[in-house]
What does this fold into?
Amino acid sequence: MHVTGSKVWLITGSSRGLGRAFAQAALEAGHRVVATARNPLQLNDIVSRYGDRVRALALDVTNEVQAQHAIDTAIDTFGVLDVLVNNAGYGNVCPVEDTSLADFRAQIETNLFGVIIMTKAVLPYFRERRAGHIIQVTSIAGRIGPIGRAPYAAAKFGVEGFSESLHKEVGPLGIKVTIVEPGGFRTDFAGISTDLREGRPEYEATVGATVRFQRDYDDKQPGDPAKAAAALLHIASLSDPPLRLLLGSDSYNAAEQAALQKLELDRKWKDLSDSTDYASGDSTAR
It folds into this structure.
């Protein structure tokens, strides 16, 4: 089936969680999808169900050669590529002090550099077409630094800044950029995709509490992955999509509260901030 208005999507991290929900929803709506995963055998059920409208592909987003191959394969297979969804990612819970630099680098490599690599791979094609939509799946942790997830937040904050700059550069070229920020959804993100470690006893009240909450919260999150996928499809259909979209009432409420707190703090210290300017009429450097 090739329905009118159907698009070709490339979705990273499609084997489970939100990525799988996104891929299935796009296919159900009549779109064509290149679904990628480190192990594409995990996508066999989707391939057997949707046939030649889906192409499963092995992809490590940190590998530049594989990233370019994925983009090229989408175009070669379906003749076009309309939407890139950078969804692949993971985040462990552990105090900063007890997280090795290797673990920091690994999380930032996948969650930030993976997004940069995939985005750079698709940009020349989208630029030449003067069309295309890049959807970056970050997290509420792209707006607020959660306890125990410093490497993940560092990466997701990085994706937000990267994508905001990208949006300003490529918007005039006809390329759309949307940052999607999910809260808690009932996927296996809190299970198989996350390593939970309380760390040393001094962090019992902070990271320890987060770990206990996360274990209890699994499968009780408010977010419905199918509804998140429906929202993503809606955003991809718009001629003027938002730069940012919070997914879930928990994500919206946390972001709103944090934004108001930041504004209040900025205003509280405004006089000190302003005091660092040259005095009026005194602009010569000393």
User: Anything to note?
Assistant: The mean pLDDT is 90. The domain at 8-270 is CATH 3.40.50.720 (Rossmann fold).
